[in-house]
Amino acid sequence: QVQLVESGGGLVQAGGSLRLSCAASGGTFSSYAMGWFRQAPGKEHEFVAIISRSGGYTDYADSVKGRFTISRDNAKNTVYLQMNSLKPEETAVYYCAASNAAWSTSRFDYRYWGQGTQVTVSS
């Protein structure tokens, strides 16, 4: 059983930056691909970014490419999401999740989820 705890959310103005962190415990962190998803009110979970088990491979939703960066520190059991040039439409609850699958952008392949952290981008 893996427990995930996100932090770093908050209120930021459009164009600003935030760095989210997700600390894992209770499992072998390096055996999981890690993803970030977000859910805006009334919408489905949306894939944001994924990082491979070793951290050597990453991928992003087209909407965030060039502005967001996912990274991980397996020694610290932590995954990060650096978000720059934030837009008001990116206001959402951001979740980190762990997947046994080697590589998947589908939320259905992620077994463990954090409780989420609210990101609010004001215009």
Number of helices: 0
Order of helices and strands: EEEEEEEEEEE
Helix content: under 10%
Multimeric state: single chain
Give a written overview of the molecule.
The protein has 123 residues and is mainly beta. Helix content is 0%, strand content 51%. It contains no helices and 11 strands. It has strands at 3-7, 10-13, 18-25, 33-39, 46-51, 58-60, 68-73, 78-83, 92-99, 110-113, 117-122. Strands 2, 4, 5, 6, 9, 10 and 11 form a 7-stranded mixed β-sheet that branches. Strands 1-3-8-7 form a 4-stranded antiparallel β-sheet, with no helix packed on it. The radius of gyration is 13 Å and the shape is globular. The model has no long low-confidence stretch (mean pLDDT 96).
Characteristic key phrases:
four-stranded antiparallel sheet; 0% helix; 123 residues; mainly beta
